[in-house]
Amino acid sequence: MVIRTCVGCRQRAEKSTLVRVVAGRSATGVTVEPDPDGTRPGRGAHLHPAERCLQLALDRRAFVRALRLEGSPDTEALTDWVRNEAQRRA
């Protein structure tokens, strides 16, 4: 059993219940993207796939700190993924 901490709510949970997020690059700058398979290279952070945890992480700028980013990354891809995952689970 591998334990990780959610960057949103700061609760410790099994890695299998969290989604890994990584920094990516786009034409417009840095993005924060989901890595549900956990296979993309680079530094990662973990998040519960819940809108509440996503909003807490965004409010606290947790992705910037955890992924060691500069500026304000685009989180649209992650936001869409979390919303779709929440609808799928409901």
Automatic annotation (TrEMBL):
Residues 4-72 form the YlxR domain. SUPFAM superfamilies: YlxR-like. It comes from the Bacteria. This is YlxR family protein. The lineage of its organism: Bacteria, Bacillati, Actinomycetota, Actinomycetes, Propionibacteriales.
